[in-house]
Amino acid sequence: MKILIADDDPISSKILQKNLENWDYETVLARSGPSAWQALQDESLRLAILDWMMPGMDGVEVCRKIRRRKKYKYTYIILLSAKDRTPDIIAGLSSGADDYMTKPVNFLELKARLKAGRRIIDLEDKLLFIQNQLKDLASRDSLTRIWNRAEITRFLSEELERGRREKKFTSVIMLDVDHFKKINDFYGHSIGDQALLQVVSRLRRKVRRSDKMGRYGGDEIIVILPNCGQAEVKNVGERLRLAVGGRRIRTELDAVPITISAGCATSDLQQATSPEALIKTADKALLKAKEQGRNCVIVSGEARQRAREKENA
Amino acid sequence: MPDLIDLDKLQPIDFDEVLNRIGGDSSFLMELLTIYFQEFDDKKHLLEEAIASQDYIQVCELGHSLKGSSANLGLARLQRVALSLEIAGREKRIRPAQEAIRALEAEVQTLKTFLAKNTLP
Q1: Which end of chain A is more exposed for a tag (fewer CB within 10 A), N or C?
Q2: Domain tally, chain B
Q3: Contact between residue B81 and residue B100 where contact means Cβ atoms under 8 Å apart
C-alpha cells in the first residue's frame, strides 16, 4: 500500500521511510506542504503522514485542503507534531486529521495506528463497491443489462433539458419485436429471453456511443439520441431495423426469423417537450408502424412535414 | 536560556534509545548521522546569514528544525542547545543566538569525537 511521508526534516523522514518500507509500504516523500499537496493529487495515495510544521504550507492546512475536496476517495491522515498539549491535539484533529501522534514517534505505536487507518480505508472501499453495485442494480434491466425504464426516462429528461439550452434536437426511437408474444407462446419464455438478448446485442452495435438504450417494458426498447434531428433519426431507425431483421436469430432451439418495428419522435425547439410527451409520440408512431404491416420505421410528423414542403414548392 | 551546565550530565548520543527506535540497525544509524552532519553544515550557513540580516523568524525555525532532528537521533545535548537557539530567535535576542550557534558547533565536535572513540554497540 502506498503512503505519503510529508516531513521537512530529512532525518525523521528517513527513519519513517525505513520503518514503513520494512512493513511493506510503498513510500512517497514530500519535503514541504505544497509538494505534499501535489503528491496527494494521486488518487491511489490513501494514507498520509503529515508533519505539522512544514515550509510553504503546514500539515494542518494540507489536512483542511484534503477535507475540502470533493469526489476523491478518503485519505487517512496521521498528523505528527512535537506539540503535545491538549489544545494542539484538538486543533490538529479539528483540521481533519484522523489521528495525531507526538514526536519523536514510537514506531510500534505507529504501526498499530496505520493498521487502524487501513481498516477505515478497506471499509470505505467495500462501501463504495456495494454502492456502485446497488446503483447498477437499481438502474439496469436485469435481463438485458441495458438501462431500465426509470433510468432511461431520467436520462431523456436530462437530454431534453440540455437540448433546450443548446438549441439541439433530441430524438427517441421506440421499438419492439414483431409478434414477440407468438415467439414466447410457441418456444417458451426462455427462448423469448434469448431472442431478446440477441436483438439488444444487434441494436447495441448500431447506436452511437452518445446514444442510450433502455428496456421500456416487455419487448419494448427505447433509444435516446441526443443531438439528433428528424432526418437522422429516420436513418438510425432504418439501420436498427436492418441490423435486427437482416438474418435469423439463433437460439437454443431454433434459428428464429425476427423483425422489429420502430416509431421515432423528435423534440421541438420552439417549445418545451416533456419526456412523457415525446415517448407518447414515439409510441404512437410505433403503433402506426404496426398498422402498416410491421418491419418498418415511422417518423412522427414526417407526413405533415412532407406535405408542408410540397405546399412550399 | 536552559542551563547549559546540565549538559555535562548527558551523553552526546543515547545509543540505546535511538537504536531502539530504528530496529537496532547500526549501519542505518551511521547513515543518518552522516545526513545529520551535512544538514548541520547547511543550516549553520543559513543561521549565520539569518543572524547577519537579523531574520529572527528564520533563526527560530532553524533552531526548531535542528531540535527535531537531534531528538530523532537521541542527541540530547544538541537538542537542548537547539532549543535555546529557537528561544533566542523567538525572543529576538542576538547575543544568546550567537552563543547558541557556537555551542552547537562545539557540541557537534564533541559528538564527532565521541563517535570516533566509541564504537557502536
Answers
A1: C
A2: 1
A3: yes
Whether A280 shows a pLDDT value over 90: the answer reads yes
The average pLDDT across A75-92 equals 93
> What average pLDDT does the segment A83-109 reach?
91
Please list every residue in chain B whose beta carbon sits closer than 8 Å to the beta carbon of residue A10.
35, 39, 69
Identify the closest residue of chain B to A108 by CA–CA distance: B21
CB within 8 Å: A18 and B68: no
B62 contact residues in A (CB cutoff 8 A)? none
Q: Which of A8, A18, A82 sits opposite B22 (nearest CB)?
A: A18
A105 close to A58: Cβ distance less than 8 angstroms: no
Average pLDDT over residues A218-237: 93
> pTM value?
0.68
Chain B positions touching A103 (Cβ under 8 A) are 68, 71-72
For chain A, where are the alpha helices, taking DSSP H only? 10-22, 33-39, 59-68, 86-94, 107-139, 149-166, 180-187, 189-204, 230-245, 275-291, 302-312
In a domain, B1, yes or no: no
CB contact under 8 A, A9 and B28: no
Average pLDDT value for residue range B36-43: 94
Domains defined along chain A, listed by start: 2-138 (3.40.50.2300), 149-312 (3.30.70.270)
Task: Tell me the residue range of the domain where B98 lies.
Answer: 11-117
Give the highest mean pLDDT range of A23-27, A55-59, A184-188: A23-27
Question: What is the arithmetic mean of pLDDT over A151-155?
Answer: 94
In a domain, B102, yes or no: yes
Tell me, what's the ipTM?
A: 0.78
Question: Which residue blocks in B53-117 are alpha helix, DSSP H?
Answer: 56-72, 76-90, 94-117
Residue B4 domain flag: no
The CATH number for B26's domain is: 1.20.120.160
A254 CB near a chain B CB, below 8 Å?
no
Q: Which three cell numbers stand for residue A23?
A: 512493513
Question: Would the pLDDT of B1 be above 60?
Answer: no
* Alpha carbon distance A122, B59 (integer Å): 44
Which among A9, A19, A106 is the nearest to B68, CB-wise?
A: A9
Task: Flag whether B60 is in a domain.
Answer: yes
Residues in chain A: 313
